[in-house]
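Quick one, probably user error.
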């Protein structure tokens, strides 16, 4: 039967517990991840006394934490997004500085080189102008090499940070697994009551883990939380943590991928989409890889076009120009997991069709499949892949030899190695081919008004390139070549012979002659130097639609735009993350003013309960005295 003593004692115990919980809130007001706790009181079952029900006191049913799962989920998602952008921004800022148009960057080096070519064209006999041109060529090559090396250094830094982040993720996952064990074990001890502090610790670890990788969770009936990353890979299951590890890329030993330590080398780097790890991987696939390819494409288009133009002119010794630059071309890399004996050789067959993509060639189902690495799209090919019939795609010529095994893969990098390998191939200023290789002349005795262009070289390998050729008009509309044949004259039309090309204009008279011959002694000729200087604006990529200058501007502008967009996105996500933190804090954090008011409330309640107990004691003493005196 309830009495004043039981009721008062139950109240004292309940209010004491409430004061203790409130005091614990105050003590943990600044503890990261701590969620405010509240005692929940239930009235004891009343007793019926014939004339009504009388209460029997109060019990503490539970100590519940103020936890908002939806708000925490939003916070974790914003943590992952911000972690990715923070990591990504580190490299967009570095690359923006590296490719900036200010200072001694690529833009300055390219402009300096072609300006020096213009100076040679202005004074082809000047030793100083030629030396400056050769120096600018060295500067350009060094700048391209250094830029490629900087990209290598960034990739090295990404590797280091990936290793460190993987170790941190493993530390968090192991701690979560251990807390899962503690939480499930506590269920038997506490008769189903929630271990609030352990839950807080686990939720805080999940939030911290979200900084490194995007996570999703499920909670089992026993209270254990399972954690999944990537595209559903299990990081923590109950009390077991699957350790991550870094694995060397199958095509590049200097490139680390991410997988599970027990997965026999299998990786799932492509599945990461959030957190610092996602940002690091995105920096590699969206920044350094494309930039290396674009830089290589720029290098190849510039160097190959300059070399071609250099080879169409004569140097100061009267010889056809040698290559000005050396550089590595397209490369093929076999996967370390290949089991067949096939090998792949790749060349650039059409500069105009060359893209800044990387490719994967896979032997599957008895045939080769070519796909783009960036998006996995299939690339249309022609040819059989043999020396007689190369596999052709995007300006590439692919020759396959040996016997492949099903599933064998090859990474094809058309441009990636070019910038890091470029060097100047000549060391003497006399080897600069400033002069045109052929010259033309109209006979002084010509009676008509016909004129002939200076002539350009189409094929420097033609064995008859320097053979003197005479065009003799047999009438106003026909001409012969070295006294043979009869060809129709069309004013302004191209006349291509022996690897050169000229145009005749005007109205020649019968008997008029024009000659094309080697440009002997043309040390003051600047025609090829002018053409070299114009390479900058000559359409060479995208089937002639994009010049070297256009490719350079696109490269530099693209880097700057990406950096600017990343800065905006990072600032916006910082605001989102701050708001998410404030939302969680407003619902789950400790407000000291509220706790002070609660302490006062519980103190007064405790004092009142004590007073009720005192009254009950006084009544009991009065009853005892009455009995004794009776």
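Nope, works fine. Designed sequence:
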């Amino acid at each position: 039967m309830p009495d004043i003593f039981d009721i008062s004692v139950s109240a004292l115990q309940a209010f004491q517990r409430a004061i203790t919980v409130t005091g614990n809130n105050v003590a943990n007001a600044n503890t990261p991840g701590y969620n405010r706790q509240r005692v929940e009181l239930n009235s004891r079952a009343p007793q019926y006394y014939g004339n009504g029900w009388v209460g029997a006191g109060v019990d503490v049913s539970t100590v519940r934490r103020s936890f908002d799962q939806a708000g925490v989920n939003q916070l974790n998602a914003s943590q992952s997004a911000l972690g990715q952008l923070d990591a990504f921004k580190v490299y967009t800022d570095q690359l923006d500085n590296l490719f900036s148009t200010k200072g001694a960057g690529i833009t300055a080096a390219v402009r300096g080189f072609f300006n020096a070519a213009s100076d040679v064209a202005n004074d082809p006999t000047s030793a100083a102008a030629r030396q400056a041109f050769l120096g600018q060529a060295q500067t350009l090559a060094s700048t391209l090499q250094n830029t490629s090396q900087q990209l290598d250094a960034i990739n090295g830094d990404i590797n280091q940070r990936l290793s460190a982040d993987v170790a941190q993720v493993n530390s968090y996952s192991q701690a979560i697994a251990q807390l899962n064990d503690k939480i499930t074990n506590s269920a038997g001890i506490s008769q189903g009551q929630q271990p609030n502090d352990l839950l807080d610790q686990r939720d805080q670890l999940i939030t911290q883990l979200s900084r490194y990788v995007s996570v999703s969770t499920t909670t089992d009936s026993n209270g254990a939380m399972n954690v999944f990353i990537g595209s559903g890979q299990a990081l923590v299951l109950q009390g077991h943590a699957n350790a991550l590890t870094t694995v060397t890329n199958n095509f590049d030993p200097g490139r680390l991928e991410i997988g599970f330590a027990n997965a026999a080398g299998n990786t799932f780097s492509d599945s990461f989409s959030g957190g610092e790890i996602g940002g690091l991987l995105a920096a590699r696939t969206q920044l350094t890889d494309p930039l290396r390819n674009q830089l290589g494409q720029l290098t190849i288009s510039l160097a190959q076009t300059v070399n071609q133009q250099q080879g169409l002119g004569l140097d100061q010794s009267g010889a056809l120009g040698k290559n000005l630059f050396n550089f590595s071309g397209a490369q093929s890399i076999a996967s370390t997991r290949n089991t067949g004996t096939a090998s792949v050789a790749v060349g650039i067959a059409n500069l105009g069709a060359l893209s800044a993509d990387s490719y994967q060639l896979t032997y599957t189902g008895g045939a080769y499949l070519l796909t783009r690495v960036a998006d996995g799209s299939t690339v249309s090919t022609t040819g059989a892949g043999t020396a007689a019939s190369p596999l052709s795609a995007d300006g590439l010529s692919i020759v396959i030899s040996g016997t492949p095994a099903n599933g064998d893969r090859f990474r094809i990098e058309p441009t990636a190695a070019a910038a890091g390998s470029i060097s100047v191939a000549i060391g003497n200023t006399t080897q600069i081919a400033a002069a045109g290789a052929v010259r033309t002349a109209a006979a002084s005795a010509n009676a008509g008004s016909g004129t002939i262009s200076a002539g350009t070289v189409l094929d420097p390998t033609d064995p008859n390139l320097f053979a003197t050729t005479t065009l003799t008009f047999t009438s106003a509309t026909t001409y012969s070549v070295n006294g043979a044949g009869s060809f129709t004259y069309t004013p302004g039309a191209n006349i291509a012979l022996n690897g050169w090309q000229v145009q005749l204009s005007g109205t020649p008279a019968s008997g008029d002659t024009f000659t094309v011959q080697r440009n002997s002694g043309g040390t003051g000729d600047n025609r090829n130097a002018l053409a070299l200087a114009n390479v900058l604006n000559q359409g060479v990529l995208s089937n002639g639609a994009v010049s070297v200058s256009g490719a350079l501007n696109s490269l530099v502008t693209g880097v700057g735009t990406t950096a600017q967009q990343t800065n905006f996105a990072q600032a916006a996500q910082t605001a989102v993350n701050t708001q998410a933190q404030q939302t969680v804090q407003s619902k789950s954090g400790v407000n000291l003013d509220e706790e002070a008011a609660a302490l006062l409330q519980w103190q007064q309640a405790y004092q009142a309960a004590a007073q009720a107990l005192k009254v009950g004691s006084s009544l009991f003493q009065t009853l005892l005295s009455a009995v004794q005196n009776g």
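Residues 471 and 573 are 74 Å apart (CA to CA).
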